[in-house]
Amino acid sequence: MKGVVRIGVLGAGQLGRMLALAARPLGIGVVAIDPAEDAPAATVAEVWRGAYDDPALLARLEVAAEAVTFEFENVPPAALERLAQRRPVWPSPGALAEGRDRLREKALFERVGIPVPRHRAVRDRADLDRAVVELGGRAVVKTRYGGFDGRGQAVLDGPVDAATWDALSSSPLLAEAFVPFRRELSLVVARGADGALAFYPLVENLHQQGVLRLTLAPAPDVPSAVEADVRAAVTRLLEHLGYVGVLALELFDTGTGWLANEMAPRVHNSGHWSIEGAETSQFENHLRAGLGWPLGSAAPRGVSAMLNLLGEMPEHAALLRVPGTHLHHYEKAARPARKLGHLTLTAPDAPTLAQRLRAVAEVVPSLREAAHHGARRLDTRSLVR
Amino acid sequence: MKGVVRIGVLGAGQLGRMLALAARPLGIGVVAIDPAEDAPAATVAEVWRGAYDDPALLARLEVAAEAVTFEFENVPPAALERLAQRRPVWPSPGALAEGRDRLREKALFERVGIPVPRHRAVRDRADLDRAVVELGGRAVVKTRYGGFDGRGQAVLDGPVDAATWDALSSSPLLAEAFVPFRRELSLVVARGADGALAFYPLVENLHQQGVLRLTLAPAPDVPSAVEADVRAAVTRLLEHLGYVGVLALELFDTGTGWLANEMAPRVHNSGHWSIEGAETSQFENHLRAGLGWPLGSAAPRGVSAMLNLLGEMPEHAALLRVPGTHLHHYEKAARPARKLGHLTLTAPDAPTLAQRLRAVAEVVPSLREAAHHGARRLDTRSLVR
What we know:
The structure is a homodimer.
Chain A: E1 5-10, H1 14-23, E2 28-34, E3 46-49, H2 55-64, E4 67-70, H3 77-84, H4 93-100, H5 102-111, E5 119-122, H6 125-134, E6 139-143, E7 153-156, H7 162-168, E8 173-177, E9 183-191, E10 197-199, E11 203-208, E12 211-217, H8 224-241, E13 245-253, E14 258-264, H9 274-277, H10 282-290, E15 303-310, H11 316-320, E16 325-329, E17 339-347, H12 350-363, H13 368-379
Parallel strand pairs in A: 1-2, 1-4, 2-3
Antiparallel strand pairs in A: 5-8, 6-7, 6-8, 9-10, 9-11, 9-13, 11-12, 12-15, 13-14, 15-17, 16-17
Helix pairs in contact in A: 1-10, 12-13
């Protein structure tokens, strides 16, 4: 944890690990709290094993760290609020609270002029069935709190069945109109303590079973007016929240406009490409923001594709044979569908990137579908913007 | 030290630290041996404190690591030879031995057709005085073994004085003709276990008091015939040695040709720019070579300048305000002239890089001279190659 400056991180998963790897060269020491036995950050940071709200660990963290951040949004709010009384916490617990309830998040988005799908709060089963009709006959029902990687939601085309209702209704729900989107995009941005903004380009994401598989950075074929419109909307959001650090906004490109899906008040899987693909990574910028240092440029370096490695790690030699490959191994135990690492392919231009994606598809069967999808998207991109 | 593969490193200074930082994302665990109390690699690797030839530590290392490398060439040969009987050691102890004696190194260079300055072995003081005359009246006297960062050498314009002779003559010496070079260049190259080569571009170096201050990558104005000639010569050297891993060759550009100065059988300070400035860093390629994995491209990404941070670390906020700045803090205790970190500036083109060097000169007084030197070199480069 030695370092010129020392920070605390709640969570020592792969995001905490990549934060720590970005911190070290800046002379930043990292101490993290995580309940897991075998946390991925443990080889690059000092990790204290325990609950996020363990009072003894929090008391130690207040002493050890000059500022505190977190790697995921479901840390106990009371723990963050306690820390925030003694140390700067970034982003602020208040900003985090705004996004924790998906209904409140949508109200916030509407307040700052970020377009969202039509939606309804759901109090009971009859309420949900009515909402599906009112929202056009097809809706997504989601838990208002928690849930990630596609968990805690279901698509309904009519009255909810008993099994789905039972699975979800233990927590408060909301229903959203189903958006027949053309593609999913996301925006990752860093806001400094001085209000400076570093926008990464809009990226295109492919999810399968609710889990991110592929990110293309920058997203092909984003009209500059759309990029500017999203940036302006997110700027209003960040300023409203007095936000400091990295934030990600997931959105739907409907073909005729865009709608926000949700935000993540932290470094984000769809920003991992920035380690090699941007002038400054999202991890470094998150740290620079939190410590009051100037942000680095978020401009892309060439074009990149990020592929998540789920369930099993491919063989190093096969993978690294593909030009432009950058491997990120999280050193986690393998379990079906678990995020074990990611791969970033960099290239000077889209045709070369498509070629490299096809080469990856050849050598890693589990990436075939996502890599081919990415290659096709690059092939069919319009050359005029 | 956890990792899919575990390697051992003799030495846990900044080179070992940067090797470990490159190793982690590849799922490579690192254990290092170092006698220092406060080794820079200790926060990112498992560091065992002790002598490089401590038999107990070496015995543990043979068990813990699947392959072993080293961060500097003055490790005790017997320690490496012992390890090499049980584990792959890269580069091989034999290759290391060839470069340990500067006289033997020059004979090796001549054998493979690498041009070197005229030189003589020195047996006694009269021998040295004769050599200076024979070498044209100006010579560099150097210890045959050890010595780095300008230590263990002196420039003579006539008979040696008693103080210089006393300071150097406790170890065997050689004398070299003084080369009135136009500039210093170096070549960093990785050779894979399969014999594949990844050449970084020739870079231009500025030394002061024998210590590297600045590297410009790629070196401005290198005719492609010279680059090809140096590469061909180094290829003969690597093949002769059956070399595996990264090697650096320092050379003099005499204006009419080039002469080799010395080689370093390891990752090299003049290759640090490659972390951000090349497709694959020298550290990653050294690891990939040693583990038998395919090498990554060594092609530059834009243009870069590396500045060593000596004696004191500049303030983060001032430094990071300069666009394209990438800070590498080694977390070492400050001492006058000690290498405490380095800075890599990246830019899309030479004029932008020159501008950024001048911006660094403004905010970091201790870098002013080296940064201005670099900026002027970029200004006056010929635009035709």
